[in-house]
Amino acid sequence: MNNIEVLSTIPELRDRLGQARERAALTGADTRIVLVPTMGALHAGHLALVRRAHALGDIVVVSIFVNPLQFGAGEDLDSYPRTLDADLAALANENVTFVFAPSAREMYPGGASDTRVVTGEVGSLYEGAARPGHFDGMLTVVAKLLNIVTPDAAVFGQKDGQQVFLVQRMVADLNVCSAIEVVETVREPSGLALSSRNRYLDEPQHTAAQALFAGLSAAAAAGPDGPTAALAAAHARIDLEPLVKLDYLVIVHPQTFLVVPGDYHGPARMLVAARVGTARLIDNVAIRLG
Ligand code: PAF
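# pantoate complex -> structure
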């Protein structure tokens, strides 16, 4: 079990990171800092991010912050699980150096952020269409965290595929120096992607939610027959579940994240979002078409 230092203010965190950098410079050690941004309610998917962070660097910083800016009116900001003690216990054997757990006031002293990162077209599609402003809020806090920690790398999960795409775009567009690393989605044995929001599901909903990955897998198998066949295969599985209220099911180009035309051949990503009970669930898989 390692001694994690839990810090809640930006100056404290910067100070400790500065000291660590100075110590490393004195000994000639190559100290790489890796950030794992999270909103807490940690599960095995987050621990996979932390383990990748260890493979990339020496000092691992896990941020735990439920970012109000990325929640819309009527969303689950108030009920989003805040489980700091359990999160620290989950990280206890993961060799994390710092947990940064700021308050909303620490991150947004003026109550909100006057200056925001605004996404381009892709930010208003799919999750962005269902959750207006979500990606601007997410990118704004990610930009702030990258500026606070100035890590060599930051690690994100592929489950939030559109988020990963937009973070990579922001880092390229704004010439941010941190590398962005992506870790494959961690799934339950049933195939259901791990998500902090799975805890909102009761047992029948949990069983129904498994149709999402089953649908994506059916689509991937039908991929050689083209986009229409892949979409039909996914619908045939997901539409069987009355508890799954499908929001969108689309196939996008991995480089543009725009919907592929019906005659597209090549690598793509299928994205799905659905409401199951009160939980909004998303998932995605790589798919080869044609
Ligand atoms: O994926 C998340 O948990 C959040 O969107 C992130 C990246 C921590 C920003 O608040």
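# post-check
The chain has a mean pLDDT of 96.
The longest strand covers residues 266-276.
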